[in-house]
Amino acid sequence: MTKKITDILFCGTGGQGVLKAAEICAVAAMKSGLHAKKTEVHGMAQRGGSVESHVRYGKRVFSPLTITGHVDFLVPFDRSEADKMAVELSKTGINLIKYLDISEKTLENRFFLNTFMVGALSRYLDIAEEHWIEAIKTVFKGKHTDENIRIFLEGRSTRI
Amino acid sequence: MPVKNNLNAPHALLSGDEALAQGAYEAGVKVAASYPGTPATEILEYMSKFDEVDCQWSVNEKVAYEVAYSSAVAGVRAIFSAKHVGLNVAMDSIMTSAYTGINAGFVVVTCDEPGLHSSQNEQDNRLLAKMAKLPLIEPSSPSEAKEFVKKAFEISEKFDTPVILRLTTRIAHTKENVLVEKRQEQAKKHYRPCFEKYVMVPKNAGARHAELEKRLARLKKYSGSSSLNAVEMGDKKIGFITSGVSYLYAKEMYPGASFLKLGMSYPFPEEKVRDFVKKVKTVYVIEELEPFIEEQCKIAGIKIKTKDESFRVGELRPEHIPLIVAGDKKKHTEKLSRKPVLCPGCSHRPVFWVLNKLKLNVAGDIGCYTLGASAPLSALHTCLCMGSGDTILEGFTKVLGRNVVGVMGDSTFVHSGITGLINLAYNKTNTVLIILDNSTTGMTGSQPHPATGITIKGERTKKLVLEDICRAAGADNVDVIDPFKIKELEFLIKKRTGEDKLSVIISRYPCRLVERRKSSAPLFLMDKCKKCGLCLKLDCPSIKKEDDGSVSIDAVTCVGCNLCVDVCPFGAILKND
Fold first, then answer.
1. Nearest CA of chain A to the CA of B41: how many Å?
2. What is this structure's pTM?
3. ipTM score of the complex?
């Protein structure tokens, strides 16, 4: 297996912003000069069903899918989906479920859960803050940009 | 394709669909036609932002194919795209267009769906390329999709043939860094009428068939020398012959191995394959679904190792490659997936509620409303292919009698349901068809269609009036009803199923994802609730069962359709004005 690739798995249910979160992450990796791949399924899966998005980045990525037992970070938006997906993590992999717990107490609007979780994830990744901010601007195309950046920074400064 | 780490180059994070459209745009494509279908929809959606390209959502895939094909014959580069089963709809024209050839470049994109995430089957359209005798191009990633579609246009013009380009879900819906470049305009090619080439009467078609065989032989030579079929020599003890996204899975797991990557897998580059196999000790064929490469190797007497038959079903994953190498069977480790449901406030829900209550046999079709099939609504009993809601209705009515209705969506009805309605009328069948009209193509992400009166570019156009076309087709009664008037709806369905007439009921209410109508969530009165569970049978994502057997209504996701208010027999849910 080619390592030095960072593998991230986002999971949740339709309508939670899982795919947008993964998109921000992949764009941020691309903006920092790396090769990024993101994969997911659309259509039927969107209607409230389970949603997962795989992001892999590094110097050169082959498989768009992550490999069971080799995922570095699990970013869950839903508790039962997180339980189901925990098997995907590697032995040293990090589950960000605690940030989901914190968000339930601190986040006033669930609409912004995705940028909060991306902020939390960004604490662990070697991607400069400017690239994250650029990525948020690119992905949201100017919609609620300031609010999204504020929530992102909130997630980014959350300690567990 | 390696990605250059050049921060100054204009890279964008594009999906395989978007990158393919970008590549076709850069190749000077002038006409693009499609019908929405996962995972192909985004090709045309991305293309529609370019003013230089005449884009259209066609009525169905057959129409789309012929519009794009004829544009190419008339002299400009054209592209057709569809999901795998969409190609079936266009197959009649595809088969004979291989005979006539084209003029300017014509690329036929199929997006196959191993793993059927949002499809009714997982057919492998590489077999259709072979049947139609058309060259087949298989990129493995979005950046290759962009490069290979340009090659496909060149091959199309060099050999005067439609070229099939195949993506799968994992390419179509994977995003990666893709280099965005400038468009190269193409001069319009001269069109001249040619009886022998374009009029496929038996005598001409026979001659063109002979021509097609000669063309295939030339294409086989080309595929043998083309850089699309690339050898990457590594460890000579183990090698892989592979194509599409399977290449990336094998490369991920065995980066040091030798590879023969088939970017043009048909016509089969037999000599190149034979040569590769000679140089490498053990060679495995890695491919999703059908044994397409495998069979061609075996026909040529080339010794290869192949996957166990259990891998012919479902999507391949990187973890599967070592299993294939070990000669093992596929391990079933599928996770329980949350089932998709109709959205809160979906206008299909009241219809299925009534159909369930009336215990009717329901001939169904393909769209969001197929979700009405699963429990507890359980009020849709067939899903075969697009446009089958009213044709299956006919067979059911003949055999099962009048305890039957058909349902189909507005976009599906326009796609291929109109002929079925004419057939019902012409063949004197009295029954009831319900058109679930949410005024959009819902499941694929809200695309417009003829009955919306809007084009893909958002312009107003002639609007197909469903009531008028149903009457013209021969319906005796055409009723239009707001499905949230649930008592009237029930009365109407009972009335029409009891008559000896051909009736169409148009259940019309806009999709909640298009018109975000929202009212206050109703109030739940705990003391009146008898815990009967009837409201839960609506299968509404906003109504949740609590541990004590009562329910709660999620005011954030609820859109205030008040269907649960009408359904509760004890007045425990109150409208909140």
1. 10
2. 0.96
3. 0.95
